[in-house]
Amino acid sequence: YFKAFTKQFTTGENYQAGADRELQTLRQMMIDFLQNHSQEVRPPACPPLEPVWSSDISSLFDKNSHHYTAIVFESNSSYVGREVILDLIQYENILVRRALNSDKAFLEKLGVSSVPSCYLVQPNGSHGLINNLKPLRSFFSSYLKSLPGVRKKLLLPLQLPAPESKEESPETKVWKEFDKSRLYMADLESGLHFLLRVELATHKTLEGAELKTFKDFVTISAKV
């Protein structure tokens, strides 16, 4: 695991996924890593994964907004809310938060009888529990992605820093025509690198005719 904004060189931190080696176990470990980043070095693209309080949720009601807000109510040990938050991170016009089922009176007031449940606040301020949904991450995420106006964010092109302005007007760089009759060192190095690091690595061992062929190749390469 590579932590965000690591100052010193690192080869990452190794973790064991547990004896069961299940995909879900690994996914939950990764979520824990993200959530345990301190606030100072939290990756900017990572949404807040901490639960919100009932007072925060109440402030969303009867307030017009330009986006939907979904709250996943769940138990403290559940990962469904955080999984749905991360599922919807690439979508716009929707904000997903999670809340714990510790405030029983508040849940009862909202009509949340079981967890995990998904509660939706619409842009016009109306709100209510999403009924007839199985309490699973896939059902919550699919439903929220299908809401009107919710769509995947467009990836903006990388903004490079503007070049420093010079007094003289920069000359237009003319592209050279590619000469197919010539052989370029970069292509030779790239091909040799691929052969030795990728293609050769597909063989666990070389013996007999294969080994002799490889030795001959290395000899010729060294000569030329």
From TrEMBL:
Name the PANTHER family on file. QUIESCIN Q6-RELATED SULFHYDRYL OXIDASE, SULFHYDRYL OXIDASE 2
Q: Where is the signal peptide?
A: none
Sulfhydryl oxidase Trx-like domain span: 43-150
State a GO cellular component annotated for this protein.
Answer: extracellular space
A GO term, aspect molecular function: flavin-dependent sulfhydryl oxidase activity
Q: Per its UniProt record, what InterPro entries does this chain match?
A: QSOX_FAD-bd_dom (IPR040986), QSOX_FAD-bd_sf (IPR042568), QSOX_Trx1 (IPR041269), Sulfhydryl_oxidase (IPR039798)
User: What name does the UniProt record give this protein?
Assistant: QSOX2 oxidase
Against Pfam families, the record matches this protein to:
FAD_SOX (PF18371), QSOX_Trx1 (PF18108)
GO BP terms in the entry: protein folding
Domain (Sulfhydryl oxidase flavin adenine dinucleotide (FAD) binding): residue spans on this chain:
179-223
